[in-house]
Amino acid sequence: MTLPETLTPSSVTDHLLAILASSAHTPYIGEPVSQLEHSLQCAQQALNVSNPSADDETIVAALLHDIGQFAPEDELEGTVKDMNSGSGSVGRYSHDELGAKYLRGLGFSKKVCTLVGEHVNAKRYLCGVDSAYFEKLSEASKESLRFQGGPMDDEERRMYEEALGRDVVRDIVRVRKWDDGGKVVGVQVEGLERYKTSITKVLERDGRKVPEE
Ligand code: FE
Predict the structure, then answer these.
(1) Ligand 1 mean position to 123 CA, how many Å?
(2) How confident is the model at residue 213 (pLDDT cuts 50, 70, 90)?
(3) Residues 81, 92: contact at Cβ < 8 Å?
């Protein structure tokens, strides 16, 4: 699998779907589902949500939120390094940021990249607001939180809300909760094909081109 020479909405969509498809045999660290099942379960929850329903960018972000965890190493900018808990790998360092940068380079909007790039901070945010949330995290997720900076304190949370805005923080938190809920064995979900049009549409919107920076 190689990055297409010409990045168009449809070539990028096909490439991302191929990466996702190939994650069917990659275990989702410390959880009983594959990376692909996890991604599809997150996206399914985005499809199902109401009040308000999720827009295409949020659905696509839910599907791609862990792309920094399993995209081919040679396509990611920056250092790819595993976090090791002592009993094995608990994922790549900064997979959220790696993923956001990767998607930015492929031409995705700021919103998609923010939702992907903030899904780890969202866990830190939620753990700061709600200690019951922390208690409910899986052991693997509690373990990786240690590497991720621990829960946000009051001041950090205030600055976070101020910097990103309330609606974006709402969607960041939603993606995070779908992430937490996307670890169920044997659940029925829509397949990858369901997202083909949404991804292409998001990439095509506003005639967006691959950013130069
Ligand atoms: Fe995830």
Answers:
(1) 11
(2) very low
(3) yes
Crossing angle of the two packed helices 9-22 and 196-204, in degrees rounded to 10? 140
Residue 109 Cα to ligand 1 middle (Å): 20
Helix crossing, 9-22 with 35-48: angle to 10°?
120
Which two structure tokens, joined as six digits, stand for 89?
């790998």
Q: How far is the CA of 204 from the centre of ligand 1 (A)?
A: 26
Determine the distance separating the centroid of ligand 1 and the alpha carbon of 71, expressed in angstroms.
13
Judge contact between 198 and 15, C-beta under 8 A: no
DSSP structure class, residue 27: B
Go through the domains of the chain in sequence order and give each one's CATH number: 9-186+195-203 (1.10.3210.10)
And the tokens for 177? 């909760």
The confidence score (pLDDT) of residue 120 equals 81
Whole-angstrom CA distances from 194 to 59, 150, 199 are 11, 36, 10
Alpha helices in 78-183 (DSSP H): 95-105, 110-117, 119-129, 131-136, 139-148, 154-164, 166-181
Structure token digits, residue 49: 């949500």
Percent of the chain with pLDDT over 70: 89
**Per-residue pLDDT tens digits for 91-132:** 666 888 999 999 999 999 999 999 999 988 999 999 988 889
CA of 2 to the centre of ligand 1 (A): 24
